[in-house]
Amino acid sequence: MIPEAREVRLSRKDRKVLEACCRSPMTLQRDLKRARIVLLAADGRSTRSIAKEVGVQPRIVSVWRHRYADQGLEGLQDKPRPGKQPIYTKTTDKRILKLLDKPPPQGFARWTGPLLAEALGDVDVQYVWRFLRSHKIDLAARKSWCESNDPNFTAKAADVVGLYVAPPAKAIVLCVDEKPSIQALERAQGYLKLPNGRALTGQSHDYKRHGTTTLFAALEVATGKIIATHSKRRRRVEFLDFMNSLTAAFPGRKLHVILDNLNTHKKNESWLKAHPNVQFHFTPTSASWLNQIEVWFSILQGQSLSGTSFTSLKQLQEHIDAYVNAYNDKAEPFVWTKKKIRQRRFKGRRINQL
Prior knowledge:
The protein is of the alpha/beta class. It has twelve helices and nine strands. It has three domains: 12-76; 90-135; 152-329, Nucleotidyltransferase, domain 5 (2-Layer Sandwich), CATH 3.30.420. It has helices spanning 12-23, 29-42, 47-54, 58-71, 90-100, 113-120, 125-134, 153-165, 236-249, 269-274, 293-305, 313-329; strands spanning 171-186, 189-193, 199-203, 208-220, 226-231, 254-259, 278-282, 342-346, 349-353. The strands form three sheets. Strands 5-4-1-6-7 form a five-stranded mixed β-sheet, sandwiched between helices. The protein has a two-stranded antiparallel ribbon with strand order 2-3. It is elongated and about 115 Å long. GO terms for molecular function: endonuclease activity; nucleic acid binding.
């Protein structure tokens, strides 16, 4: 049943606004219909005739006649709607975060979306995934870190970094270390073509070993160039032989050599006494990442060794030598960007960080 028609009286100002609304090509259809209903009602037209002309139901005409008569132009605007109440709230989010602070269920290495949903009991797994994505929480990604408990961490780190950012005048700074047991593996190489047409380089799962080599390497901090040699073993005698070759490569120059805390690098006082132009600087315990040669070893692995195949140990050694020569042709020094030493507490201990 249609309510009794309300009388609509328009002021000049409201009429101009509604007529402008009807003429404007930018007016939304819903607003255009409401304006026409009010204008026609103000002209004395009946509800049914207005509905037929505008193309709406009579009850719709009645709604907007009443809305305008009671509230004016503001009544023609949509009222705010509360919408559907959300199923999950901030309390749910706090429950997920609190659960992530607890160990995963027995037998599982880490939390997953389904495990979280199951533990919560009343939260859908899709919401769990949406929440994790919105907070940039990756349950699968893993990062590793190394805590140094060296009581002299700050002093040792400052000594090493000082050699990088302000090397002594007329002296050579070298970063020295070994990459042991590099395997000469022979694998079948080729291309794999996937069903979607994409082609990938590939290699066979099985392989044949042809021995290992230990690479002794030194990075000259000022130029970024590499001096490297191969050895069958990594004993103290091989290390000192490599140091002898370095002193021969820089005759009469003061050498500052950065080393990690490997046992063969220490207790070489007799050799150092015979070579007074050489001074060893040791990185803090469990902080060999301060040695720039480790960065170069990572580059060597990624650009030269990964995914390759060798039929003999000699071929592996020649391959590495060729890469060293090519690298030295375009070598540039690494840029040390960290300048401040800060300290923070971690698990009740003070951990020093660069």
